[in-house]
Predict the structure.
Amino acid sequence: MTRYILLTATAALVYVQVCAQDMNDALKKTFQAFDTTRDVSVKTAQANKLTLIAKKWKDEWAPHYYNAYAKASLSYMLPENEMDKKDAMLDEADASLDEAVTLLGKETDDIYVMKAMLAQSRMAVDGRNRWQKYGKLFDENLQKAKELNAENPRIYYLKGTSVFFTPKMFGGGAEKALEYFEKAQPLFAKENDGDMTDPYWGAEANEYFIQMCKNEKEGGRAEATETKE
């Protein structure tokens, strides 16, 4: 009888471990396929897969978290005049993130980072009329994330994107944004992509923005030299 109980317990443990591994592998593969393409049709297809993964592993918080990320990212790719569709997609992202928080049972630094990203996405839909409300939420959530873990690179990556797209006359621009991206760079280098329950997204995009900032900076210097000559 004791042997039977031990065998049953061992089988149950192996089953749980396999299921968890399957979830991690499926989520990692689909997320990487989503995050490494700029093809809208491919990105949309992978986002739909992330939604299915969240439904299959509905009791795991990570799939809901990445589902929220995917929908927020996709909202930027919809035409500017489709504001209702953008907001509907972000409503789904909010619901997914809420589900992740419920399952996780707490708000971590990466949860606050994702809340900041969603606020930034809402602001991008109609910046002229939303910057006061969602700009404040963006900053507040990044600050909460920083209080929990100042070493989270996504804090500085998101802040960098915000500064990058802010006009120079209002304190933004590539030169000031570069400081944030460069601060995030070594922090990203410390992360690994093995465990999807330990978020690591943003490193490749951060490198892309660093190059954009440097190119713009070098272009500005070249232009200034030509003007002086």
Q: What stands out?
A: Residues 3-20, 222-229 have pLDDT under 50 and may be disordered.
